User: Which sequence fits this backbone?
């Protein structure tokens, strides 16, 4: 679902935006913060989440380089953020003020169409996530998530293995999947023994799509 940004569009963004770098773990925006900006991820991984009344984090999406975040509130004229965003590794972001972003959409119709398609894709993503969570137990949801991350950020080799470096902790996986860290740890060990994933130290560096899909209920 990454937007293909044309050179003209990227030049426009660079003219109206400010580039900010966030270290891993830093909050980019938080719930109830004024929604005055749109963010374009140049590098790094960003977690979108909401904190429950008892302090638990519930992750709803991961965003990658080439993604926009903070769009929903700005485009629907909601004044406050409904979710928070956190850097999952070192992140470089372009920050665009709301008025400048809307002006860009008005002046570049093709860019505006891309944003509409992006929001449509995210709606389908949300619908598919609901379906997957209903149809799959925890191991299936974990397999779906790892496969999606690998396909988005890795390279598939001639052996069919997706070579990738998934810098995500067990706590972060538990937050996304809706499970306990201990359960995630046990499942990752099963995936490793099964050959669905490969480790280098404590980092997942390979994903076997065919084997991982056997854990998923369609």
Assistant:
């Amino acid at each position: 679902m990454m937007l293909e940004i044309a050179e003209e569009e990227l030049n426009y963004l660079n003219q109206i935006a400010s580039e900010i770098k966030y270290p891993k773990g830093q909050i980019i925006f938080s719930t109830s913060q004024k929604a005055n900006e749109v963010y374009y991820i140049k590098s790094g991984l960003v977690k979108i989440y909401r904190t429950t009344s008892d302090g638990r984090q519930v992750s709803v999406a991961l965003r990658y380089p080439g993604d926009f975040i903070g769009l929903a509130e700005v485009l629907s004229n909601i004044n406050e953020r409904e979710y928070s965003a956190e850097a999952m590794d070192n992140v470089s972001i372009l920050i665009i003020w709301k008025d400048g972003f809307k002006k860009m959409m008005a002046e570049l119709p093709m860019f505006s169409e891309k944003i509409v398609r992006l929001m449509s894709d995210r709606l389908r993503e949300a619908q598919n996530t609901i379906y997957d969570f209903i149809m799959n137990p925890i191991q299936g949801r974990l397999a779906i998530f790892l496969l999606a991350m690998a396909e988005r950020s890795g390279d598939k080799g001639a052996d069919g293995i997706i070579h990738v470096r998934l810098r995500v902790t067990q706590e972060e996986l538990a937050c996304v999947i809706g499970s306990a860290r201990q359960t995630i740890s046990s499942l990752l060990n099963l995936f490793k023994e099964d050959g669905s994933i490969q480790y280098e130290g404590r980092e997942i560096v390979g994903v076997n799509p065919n084997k991982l899909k056997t854990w998923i209920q369609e």
Notes: The CA atoms of residues 40 and 68 lie 4 Å apart. The chain is about 45% helix and 25% strand.
